[in-house]
Amino acid sequence: EVQLVESGGGLVQPGGSLRLSCAASGFTFSSYAMSWVRRVPGKGLEWVSSINTNGGSPSYADSVKGRFTISRDNAKNTLYLQMNSLKPEDTAVYYCAKSVEYSGGSPRWGQGTQVTVSS
């Protein structure tokens, strides 16, 4: 059974940092490009970042470019998102998913992790 467990969210002040983790199981993690997406209150899902199977070719939404860094550790079946210089607009529930599933409109993900940026 495919399982994705997001963690690492929390409440931070503007300008702060968080590192999110996504623990994957139930599939061959290293065979899939992975993505982070977020659900912004009142706006729906927004793609944030993607990374290829080997940890290369990271890509980012313009809104987070230069502030967020995606990475993965295939030996640990874990995807990461380092978020720096956080803004109130980054407040959302963050999810990870196989990139191909997100692109296809039917991603499988976990509960997500809440990130709240507020003073």
Topology:
Elements: E1 3-7, E2 10-12, E3 18-25, E4 34-40, E5 44-51, E6 59-60, E7 68-73, E8 78-83, E9 92-98, H1 99-103, E10 113-117
Would you mind describing this structure in some detail?
- The protein is mainly beta.
- The chain is 4% helix and 48% strand.
- Strands 2-10-9-4-5-6 form a 6-stranded mixed beta sheet. Strands 1-3-8-7 form a 4-stranded antiparallel beta sheet, with no helix packed on it.
- Strand 7 and strand 8 form a beta hairpin.
- It is globular.
- The termini are far apart.
The side-by-side strand order for the widest beta sheet comes to 2-10-9-4-5-6
How much helical structure, as a percent, in the residues?
under 10%
Structural class: mainly beta
Helix and strand element order: EEEEEEEEEHE
- Per DSSP, the total helix count is 1
Question: Span between N and C termini?
Answer: 40 Å
Task: Estimate the global geometry from the Cα principal axes.
Answer: globular
For the biggest sheet, the summary is: 6 strands, mixed
Residue runs with pLDDT of under 50 for 5 or more positions: none
DSSP E strands, number: 10
Brief overview:
Helices cover 4% and strands 48% of the residues. With 119 residues, the protein is mainly β. The longest helix is centred in the last third of the chain and has 5 residues, at 99-103.
List keywords for this structure.
10 strands; four-stranded antiparallel sheet; six-stranded mixed sheet; single chain; mainly beta
